[in-house]
Design goal:
heterodimer; A: two-stranded antiparallel sheet; B: about 1050 residues; Rossmann fold; 30 helices; globular
């Protein structure tokens, strides 16, 4: 039985392999250079919706060169899927319906050999098989269940307090009983004073213990106040709070190499980089990993109706915990730094693509801002706004023009 | 001109009389520091104690780091990006008042209003009331639900059922159903009301205006056979004669007229002509303050003056003269010049008497002004109120024949002279509905309140004048459970599934769509906000009976005793927006009073008041059987024997802001010959002993008798020498007393360079009319705190931009008699005063913590978080433009009434998120809208291009209808400001140096002699007068 099965598999495999060889051997290149080119093309154009081994917005592409009617069909579909569907092509229409009538973007600019390169890459990946080590979901999701539930802690605390109070009462009884015992014996003046020491306010205040307690509490409170104050103006380097959904940047930005700007859409436009709205998540997660409890939270928040593929009326926005808290008195604009300055996200936010849970990477103090403005050259190349300034600067100095040189340290650049 | 007092400027009578108490206070810019008992918060010691306990409690309670949330959209709308503003073209409609606007929306909240330059009517202009209306959207007094009887949280179904049942009953019984409204300028709304009427045939629609112009409508009906109010084009007028028409502030369409008027007042080296403006009026109006010749008349003399003018012109034209008339100064001169400028002049009158208006029509007809400055082919819809129909309505209410009344967004119980009778009559009406968005004086008496949206939440359209159409689109989802009144009307008419937006769209499609793609056509309309079609000019034939009109005037008006006139002021206006603190705290352009209601009295009539600074007395005024008690405000320029009371005050149900300020002046108006008359004779006026302190800003700052702060000349002088009136200060150097140089040449500093931009501003004193729109725009843009009446009395107002109003007199300073006479009818000049962004700023050098510093672009920067509140800077500022936060004006219940924008959750939605809300103990001042500069620069950088002129427009500049304020880059030779001022570097070798010379001979800097090198230039005031008034 086992043998026959194996034989069947082997035969099937051979059959597929021979067909692929017969049909494609002369067409899909295997040159590593071309595969490399195909990889970069795939990442630039396809990756947003497709994976080789995984169904995303579009189908998994492994083995596509065998599935699809022909290589020419693939080329036509990539260049203009709408036309292929409109032509009534049976396979195309089936695909279109299967994927919720989502139309694939038309890549009219891709040349024949570029498409072949992409196919070469896909074939290469298909043969390699799916990656073994899938990134594990973050520990943040598990944190919810670890540790002792809070209600137990409270019960234990109350119990301890009760025991302490009882101890104090018992000790009080003991002391008074002992005093009575001692009083029955004759005592010297000194001993008597020791036993019947008078507790007045001034003795309490002057006692070392009291002073210690006061100083201790005062110091603790002051320190706590300073820490809170620092938090309130965003000085909280390393702050990595637990988020309502255990979203992993390591997975999305790291393993899947999704561009930061795909989700943080505001970064090129304005002041705020924006935390993505759920509809951006749903571009993929209406299809991908839908059964995960974390994704279910997304669906619940958006009141997603999988049957109708629409958002329902009971939407509840997700309350993310803000990590970067610039104080209100400071104006910071992402577009200025990313679009005009050409700064990488990682320069300030650190290796987010390696972070399972995002944490604040930079200090975000004014000194930190100014330090960078002192060191950084103005990204003036090709920007006509700076032409006159660069010309005037080069007349005066041989050093490159820094942000500092064009008023980057002035108060009203950030405070108004 | 040398700096010797040939002419003196003064801001108020107290300054002229130099009362010792005033002098003492005047030198103290901020008044006294707050006394401990004034402070609702605790003393510093208490504060420390509380802080100690507070910190302890907080730390013990919260052992975790403070958590702040970031909450993104669930499904982000495509065109909304957090932190980026969207602009929507819309339309301001308030009664008959109209303005085409752009609404700036941040994250779905309207936060600022600007003018729409595509509109052929308002042409990008705004007014203080339009600018302020964005705060009315967030008025805490707004209705949140419909109200049925005592049920204040009724559903719309309950309200509809109640209304439909009672309407049907009234309709069946045949009793009258009234719809009462202000002028409706929306054609679609009118269509809706027609549909409503077709369901209930007994419906009568009555329109009224708070300040009626029915007399004008009637006069045109008698003159031309058709009732209408024409458009005016002041821009084509060389001679403007106004008899008590305040056309720059309140009359008919002030935003439109302001723009046209400013065109005729602009002068330059190339254009050395300007219009001449005669004003005949009783109280000092904004328009009168801008006139070249201002003649004092009594309200009862308006008719006689018009007759006199007619007779003078008729004599020239060879037409028959009429009986009556009265000679007044400058009337003959005006007539001569009008006659010389036939077809290029305009005569307007503010009276609501059809006879006066008919003679004004006859005058304009004699002058051939129809078709040139008066455009009968473009009738306007701003004022359609019919006094007679309104009187009939009141009569019907009285007789009890009315079954139902619907008040469509109007408040006649408060703002109609017969309000009390209406209130009384309403008791006999079964169904009383108000659609106002607030429970106002009328709403309180209604059985059902069916609140309409605020105009910023609603779809609508407007036809302010013939074939000039305008769309209003919502800039925010309705905040409360309100419903478009048009939908309400249709639902009450029995329709279901009503969507006013669809109705509007299909109306417009049926009216204007000529084929093509419907949706793109509609989208373009919404983008533009306006749609205008040409109108063919028509000629009109004057057929009015001047003799009869003159006879009626002579019979009607008798000047007896003291006369009272009631008027709209330029801030609160007719009172519909009285609950808007931006308007309450906007100083009246003339009186400079804020948060106050008063009676204006001429200095001659106020003798006996021991008047020092703003302390005054109450007076009782009785007229037409009505007595009120108001504080007296002595108004230079007011005709002796007259009293003026502004309307718009005395609200009782407007909300926390306006309630309880003053008295309602509308009831003083009476119905005379079928139209409302806004003045009264035989008024009794008695000054009481009770003292009162008026809150005014007029003398909050002193200019230390420096006469050259204002520089002005006569047009005749200007024609010969464009530098006429200029004062070129020279200062002695250390070498010898004789050798004098320009003050700019002496400096402790070597100067610096502005390589990038050099921001500067030019303000034309000749086109600035002092309206105050810029002040409100600045307040809204920069989150400027409003401090309330008591704090203004304490001289702690926070306005970054103020408009200094100077009266002027050229009598000798030591001629006391002459001065007294001068106070009777002084000249007026307005000067917007804001931070001058001095290149050698005195404030910067005295700040011990470098909280105020200079930027590489010429800005004087103020860093709030560095400021420790020494106030040295304000002390050292020669222009007195720095304002200090004596209190925490936000989140402080003490200021909830005056400053709801920072103290209520609803109000806070109006705050500009790009500008910090300042806290207690810091100094603040004009920043040249640095947030707009930064935004403009960023846009240029993102597009990889140099900054263009016009990329950065300050809020005050955008609000200015007359274009008096020009802001721009002095380093850019192509910018408007560089060309206007003819800017060149003072030192050719340092083209980017701070020293710039303005070669425009009119350009001067205030206090140039102290050498602080400001970045603001003023252009001299030019008066079109023959000779200085003696």
């Amino acid at each position: 039985m086992i043998r026959t099965l194996r034989l069947k598999y082997l035969l099937t495999y051979l059959w597929i392999f021979s067909i692929s060889l017969a049909g494609l051997a002369q067409e899909i290149p295997t040159d590593p250079a071309i595969i490399k080119e195909g990889e970069s093309l795939f990442k630039a154009n396809c990756q947003t919706c497709h994976r080789v081994h995984q169904k995303l917005v579009g189908p998994a592409l492994a083995d596509v060169y065998n599935r699809a009617p022909s290589i020419d069909w693939i080329k036509a579909f990539i260049r203009n899927s709408a036309a292929v569907i409109a032509s009534g092509d049976e396979y195309a229409v089936k695909l279109y319906n299967e994927y919720n009538k989502t139309q694939m973007t038309a890549f009219t600019g891709l040349k024949d050999d570029q498409i072949m390169a992409i196919l070469a890459y896909i074939k290469d990946e298909t043969i390699k098989g799916p990656p073994q080590a899938q990134p594990q979901p973050g520990p943040a999701g598990q944190q919810v269940t670890t540790g002792v539930p809070e209600s137990y802690l409270n019960v234990i605390l109350i119990g301890l307090v009760v025991i302490l109070v009882l101890l104090v009462i018992i000790l009080g009884f003991l002391i008074s009983a002992l005093k009575r015992l001692i009083d029955q014996k004759p005592l010297s003046e000194e001993d008597r004073e020791l036993v019947h020491s008078t507790v007045t306010l001034s003795t309490v205040v002057r006692s070392k213990g009291f002073l210690f307690i006061v100083v201790f509490f005062a110091t603790t409170l002051a320190v706590k106040a300073v820490i809170n104050g620092l938090y309130s103006i965003g000085i909280q380097k390393g702050y990595a709070p637990k988020q309502p959904i255990a979203f992993s940047h390591k997975l999305h930005a790291g393993a899947y190499e999704i561009d930061c700007k795909y989700c943080h859409t505001g970064v090129l436009k304005g002041k705020s980089a924006t935390i993505p709205s759920i509809n951006i998540c749903m571009n993929c997660h209406s299809q991908v990993k839908t059964e995960s409890p974390q994704i279910q939270k997304l669906w619940a928040a958006a009141d997603w109706q999988p049957e109708t593929k629409t958002y329902g009326p009971n939407q509840q926005p997700i309350e993310w915990v803000r990590i970067h808290n610039l104080p209100d008195l400071a104006y910071f604009n992402h577009a200025q730094h990313v679009v005009v300055g050409g700064i990488e996200c990682q320069t300030c936010h650190g290796p987010v693509e390696e972070m399972e849970v995002v944490q604040q990477y930079s200090l975000l103090t004014m000194g930190w801002c100014i330090d960078c403005h002192r060191k950084t050259d103005v990204n003036a190349k090709g920007n006509a706004y700076y032409d006159k300034l660069v010309e005037l600067h080069s007349k005066q100095s041989k050093q490159p023009m820094k942000v500092e040189d064009i008023g980057g340290l002035e108060c009203a650049k950030c405070h108004y | 001109m040398e700096e010797k007092p040939t002419k003196i400027y003064w801001k108020g009578l107290e300054e002229l009389s130099n009362a010792p108490e005033f002098v003492k206070r005047a030198h103290n810019e901020f008044g006294e520091p707050p006394r401990p008992e004034e402070n609702i918060e605790h003393s510093r010691r208490d504060f420390l104690k509380m802080m100690g306990f507070g910190v302890a409690a907080v730390s013990l309670a919260a052992c975790e780091a403070p958590v702040r949330k970031a909450i993104p959209y669930v499904n982000k709308p495509l065109d909304v990006d957090p932190s980026l503003p969207n602009y929507y073209a819309s339309t301001y409609i308030n009664g008959g008042d109209y303005c085409s606007i752009l609404v700036k929306v941040r994250e779905g909240r309207p936060i600022k209003i600007e003018g729409n330059s595509l509109s052929g009517v308002t042409r990008g202009g705004t007014s203080a009331q339009v600018e302020a209306s964005v705060l009315s959207l967030y008025d805490n007094a707004r209705l949140r639900f419909p109200r049925v009887g005592e049920n204040r949280k009724a559903t719309w179904e309950e309200a509809d059922k109640e209304i439909i049942d009672k309407l049907t009953a009234a309709s069946i019984s045949g009793s009258k159903i009234y719809i009462v409204s202000n002028s409706i300028i929306s054609p679609s709304t009118k269509k809706v009301i027609e549909q409503f009427r077709s369901k209930y045939p007994t419906v009568q629609h009555v329109q009224y205006d708070q300040v009626s112009m029915y007399g004008m409508w009637k006069a045109n009906e008698e003159s031309f056979g058709k009732g209408f109010i024409p458009s005016y084009d002041f821009s084509k007028a060389n001679i403007i004669v106004s008899i008590a028409a305040d056309f720059l502030a309140t009359w008919l369409s002030p935003i439109e007229f302001t723009k046209q008027y400013a065109q005729t007042r602009e002068v330059s080296e190339d254009k050395r002509t300007m219009s001449r403006h005669y004003q005949f009026e009783a109280g000092m109006s904004l328009t009168g303050a801008n006139a070249d010749y201002r003649t004092q008349i009594k309200p009862s003399e308006e008719g006689a003056v018009v007759i006199q003018l007619y007779n003078l012109l008729a004599a020239k034209a060879g037409a028959a003269t009429v009986q009556g008339g009265i000679d007044k100064p400058y009337l003959q001169q005006a007539a001569d010049e009008l006659w010389a400028n036939r077809g290029k002049s305009v005569v307007v009158a503010g009276s609501n008497d059809k006879n006066i208006q008919l003679i004004v029509n006859a005058i304009n007809n004699l002058l051939g002004n129809y078709g040139t400055t008066i455009l009968p082919h473009l009738p306007v819809n701003y004022r359609q109120g019919n006094d007679e129909q309104m009187a009939a309505f009141v009569n019907d209410l009285d007789t009890g024949t009315v079954g139902a009344v619907i008040f469509y967004n109007c408040n006649p119980v408060y703002d109609h002279p017969m309000g009390e009778k209406i209130a009384e009559g309403l008791k006999k009406v079964g169904l009383k509905v108000s659609t106002s968005y607030k429970e106002d004086e009328t709403g309180v008496l209604c059985s059902v309140l069916a609140p309409d949206h605020h105009y910023l939440e609603a779809w609508n359209d407007a036809e302010p004048k013939k074939n000039h159409f305008s769309l209003a689109q919502p800039a925010i989802t309705p905040i409360f459970k309100t419903r478009a009144a048009q939908e309400s009307f249709l639902i009450w008419a029995g329709q279901s599934n009503v969507d006013y937006y669809e109705i509007l769209k299909s109306n417009w499609a049926s009216w204007f769509f000529k084929g093509g793609h419907l949706q793109s056509w509609w989208d373009k309309l919404l983008f533009d906000g306006v749609y205008e079609l040409p109108v063919e000019a028509i000629s009109v034939n004057f057929g009015g009976n001047v003799q009869a009109a003159a006879g009626a005037i002579n019979a009607t008006y008798k000047s007896e005793g003291l006369e009272l006139f009631i008027y709209e002021n330029a801030t609160v206006g007719n009172g519909s927006q009285a609950n808007n603190p931006l308007l309450q705290e906007l100083p009246d352009p003339i009186t400079k009073a804020v948060w106050e209601h008063y009676v204006t009295v001429s200095p001659a009539d106020a003798k006996g008041i021991d008047f020092s600074e703003a302390k005054t007395r109450y007076a009782t005024i009785s007229a037409n059987g009505r007595t009120v008690k108001l504080p007296v405000l002595i108004q230079p320029g007011q005709t002796p024997g007259t009293l003026g009371i502004p309307v718009g005050y005395g609200r009782t149900k407007a909300g926390k802001v306006a309630d309880g300020i003053g008295v309602n002046a509308y009831p003083f108006a009476t119905l005379v010959n079928g139209s409302l008359c806004f003045h009264a004779v035989n008024v009794s006026f008695k000054i009481e002993d009770e003292k009162y302190w008026l809150a005014t800003t007029q003398t909050s700052q002193t200019y230390m008798k420096r006469a050259t702060v204002i520089q002005e000349a006569l047009l005749s002088e200007f024609k010969e020498n464009p530098a006429a009136g200029r004062f070129y200060p020279k200062v002695a150097t250390w070498k010898s007393a004789e050798e004098k140089v320009e003050p700019g040449k002496l400096s402790l500093w070597k100067g610096h360079d502005y390589y990038n931009h050099h921001w500067g501003m030019a303000i034309d004193l000749n086109t600035c009319i002092g309206c105050g729109a810029c002040v409100v725009a600045c307040n809204v843009e920069n989150n400027v705190s409003l401090v309330g009446r008591q704090e203004v009395i304490n001289r702690r107002e926070m306005h970054w931009l103020r408009i200094d109003r100077y009266y002027s007199t050229n009598a000798d300073v030591h001629d006391l008699k002459g001065l007294e006479k001068a106070a009777e009818n002084p000249e007026v000049v307005f000067q917007p005063m804001l931070c001058q962004h001095c290149n050698n700023a005195p404030c910067e050098t005295v700040c011990p913590v470098a909280a105020t510093t200079h930027s590489t672009e010429g800005l004087n920067q103020m860093t709030y978080n560095r400021c420790i509140g020494t106030r040295y800077c304000a002390n050292n500022c020669p222009y007195k433009v720095r304002r200090f936060n004596w209190f925490k004006y936000h989140d402080n219940r003490q200021f909830e009434q005056s400053n709801p924008a920072m103290n209520t959750d609803l109000g806070k939605m109006v705050l500009n998120p790009d500008v910090t809300v300042r806290s207690r103990g810091v100094m603040e001042k004009c920043s040249f809208c640095v947030q707009r500069i930064q935004q403009g620069k960023l846009t240029a950088k993102k597009e990889k291009r140099p900054l263009k002129d016009g990329d950065v427009v300050t809020a005050c500049q955008a609000a200015c209808s007359t274009g008096a304020i020009v802001f721009g880059d002095l380093n850019d030779p192509e910018s408007r400001i560089s060309k206007l001022l003819k800017i060149r570097p003072a030192d050719e070798k340092r083209p980017y140096g701070i020293d710039k010379k303005a070669d425009n001979p009119r350009a001067y800097q205030v206090l140039e002699e102290i050498g602080v090198k400001p970045n603001i230039w003023y252009l001299t005031k030019i008066r079109n007068k023959e000779q200085q008034q003696a």
